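PROTEIN DESIGN WORKSHEET
SECTION A - STRUCTURE
LENGTH: 584
TOKENS:
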């Protein structure tokens, strides 16, 4: 689950080697890093797998761990160094696994703990690390902690959650992202109280003010890290700290939700405690999903001197252009340049354009019309893999998979879209407009099954898939692209290899060129005496771009998504052309 701000508000309010060669049996305390330190998690490429949609092994229509295991050689062929697995814990699936009922069990649909152990071993044998989601802002209402908490006001688990006794009257309003009434307080008759849920009613918020709860979470984290997991993504963690008095918030606070929900009074105390007790004792990476409202807030999470987390995963870039008019390239450049500038000397960023909570990247930031889909997919890949920061890449984007754009609400499965639709319906709002927005933004657009080949259901399952397969799988699939040296897939493989070969693309200083150009995104990366130029034509037209004084290409491009490239005083760029060329 992402920290949905502009995107979800728009959707709802229309009227993440044998054994583990990296984990040590008795790990030493991890020293505080510096921004200049070379570490594996800065140099890797993270590939995100949405388990339900990747590969089904038993014909029940749901992807599973054995399915992923069957595709491990494919993952190695991509050149990625880490896999981020969306939640695979036991869950009622109200929010596709982000509502966890048992943190130490595998969701039966996905397999068994033995399957997980085999997956982890298989990844490590291929030199690939595993990053897991830690969903600890909330649990499922079917978790035993919550069952006990709601059984009695005197239950020892009562303070694992946030409660408001009904005799005090209705609680002060709090907004819920997924609730059909946007109400984050749900009345529970068993104890005549309300419980807090920032997300769906089946996702009660955990009470991090309770030290017993925090120790339970730390114990659970150690359980997975002791198995050999190599990284943790802290889902929605910036929301965990609350003011338990729940003061009245100003009218319209939900339009600036990060300000009022994020960065509570003890958030960084909890992170520093977590680092001391858990994270510092393992050679892993830790990622902050969402990190305040801007670079200054984000730095508090990942400044090495603060000993909290390693990497910030911000949403300002992917939140851009969620409306029907899309985005302006000048805004896109400004956002990514501002974040890079803020992290130039310390801290570290994730670089991404898609995940399980946003549309397919080629449908939002590229051009998914058949004539331009391949070129624009390759351009976006070039951007992600040549910026400073750790690249995150969502499964299927290496093929140029596109939004499915369902016509009917009955085809959707996501709680955010279904409850948002019901809310608009209850209010007598414009359902046609809602569905038009969902075609652009709904999370199910990126969750359709992986398109392996042109056989039935794209080779994902022999049964009925849990979510419909995009019909374009017959011409857009892995099997066909694997055989085509010029495919989007093989360009991705070349790009990951290029980044691995040239550390200037990892650690090099970033400098934006021609900031006001509304069509061309150009920048240099410089490390020591090595300097490289990246030029991206973000349009479906041919463009000319004069080289700035002092920049002289040297040799053949490292990457080029067209067959040819003529270096000269002015570059002639084809539609959606991307070129990475060394400079003298």
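SECTION B - SEQUENCE
RESIDUE ASSIGNMENT:
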């Amino acid at each position: 689950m992402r920290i949905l701000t502009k995107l979800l508000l728009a959707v709802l309010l229309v009227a993440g080697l044998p054994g583990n060669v990296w984990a040590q049996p008795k790990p030493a305390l991890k020293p505080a890093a510096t921004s200049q330190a070379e570490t594996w998690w800065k140099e890797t490429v993270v590939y995100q797998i949405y388990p339900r949609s990747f590969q089904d092994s038993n014909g029940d229509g749901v992807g599973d761990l054995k399915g992923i295991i069957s595709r491990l050689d494919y993952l190695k062929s991509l050149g990625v160094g880490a896999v981020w697995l969306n939640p695979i814990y036991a869950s009622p699936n109200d929010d596709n696994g982000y509502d966890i009922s048992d943190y130490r069990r595998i969701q039966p649909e996905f397999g068994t703990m033995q399957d997980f152990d085999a997956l982890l071993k298989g990844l490590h044998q291929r030199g690939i690390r595993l990053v897991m989601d830690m969903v600890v802002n909330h649990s499922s209402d079917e978790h035993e902690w919550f069952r006990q908490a709601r059984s009695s006001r005197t239950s020892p688990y009562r303070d694992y959650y946030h409660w408001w006794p009904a005799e005090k009257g209705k609680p002060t309003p709090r907004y819920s992202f997924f609730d059909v009434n946007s109400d984050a307080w749900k009345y529970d008759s068993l104890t005549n109280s309300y419980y807090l849920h920032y997300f769906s009613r089946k996702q009660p918020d955990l009470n991090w003010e309770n030290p017993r709860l925090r120790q339970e979470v730390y114990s659970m984290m150690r359980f997975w890290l002791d198995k050999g997991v190599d990284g943790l993504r802290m889902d929605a963690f910036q929301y965990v700290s609350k003011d338990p008095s729940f003061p009245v918030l100003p009218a319209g606070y939900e339009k600036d939700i990060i300000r009022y929900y994020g960065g509570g009074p003890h958030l960084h105390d909890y992170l520093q405690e977590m680092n001391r007790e858990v994270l510092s004792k393992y050679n892993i990476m830790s990622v902050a999903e969402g990190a305040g409202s801007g670079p200054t807030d984000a730095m508090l999470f990942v400044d090495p001197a603060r000993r909290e987390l390693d990497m910030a995963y911000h949403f300002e870039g992917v939140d851009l252009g969620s409306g029907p008019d899309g985005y302006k390239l000048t805004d896109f450049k400004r956002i990514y340049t501002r974040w890079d500038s803020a992290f130039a000397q310390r801290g570290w960023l994730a670089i991404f354009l898609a995940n399980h909570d946003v549309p397919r990247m080629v449908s939002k930031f590229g051009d998914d019309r058949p004539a331009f889909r391949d070129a624009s997919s390759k351009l976006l890949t070039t951007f992600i893999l040549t910026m400073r920061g750790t690249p995150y890449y969502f499964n299927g984007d290496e093929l140029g998979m596109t939004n499915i754009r369902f016509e009917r609400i009955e085809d959707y499965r996501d709680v955010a879209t279904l409850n948002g639709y019901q809310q608009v319906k209850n209010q007598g709002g414009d359902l046609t407009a809602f569905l038009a927005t969902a075609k652009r933004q709904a999370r199910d657009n990126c969750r359709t099954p992986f398109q392996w080949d042109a056989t039935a259901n794209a080779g994902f399952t022999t049964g009925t898939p849990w979510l419909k397969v995009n019909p374009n799988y017959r011409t857009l699939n892995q099997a066909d692209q694997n055989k085509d040296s010029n495919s989007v897939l093989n360009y991705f493989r070349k790009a990951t290899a290029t980044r691995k070969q040239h550390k200037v693309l990892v650690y090099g200083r970033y400098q934006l060129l021609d900031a006001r150009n509304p069509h061309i995104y150009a920048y240099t990366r410089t490390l020591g005496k090595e300097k490289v130029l990246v030029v991206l034509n973000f349009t479906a037209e041919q463009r000319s771009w004069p080289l700035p004084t002092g920049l002289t290409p040297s040799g053949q491009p490292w990457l080029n998504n067209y067959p040819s490239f003529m270096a000269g005083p002015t570059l002639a760029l084809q539609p959606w052309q991307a070129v990475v060329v060394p400079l003298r």
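SECTION C - NOTES
Confidence is low (pLDDT under 50) at residues 3-35.
The chain is about 30% helix and 15% strand.
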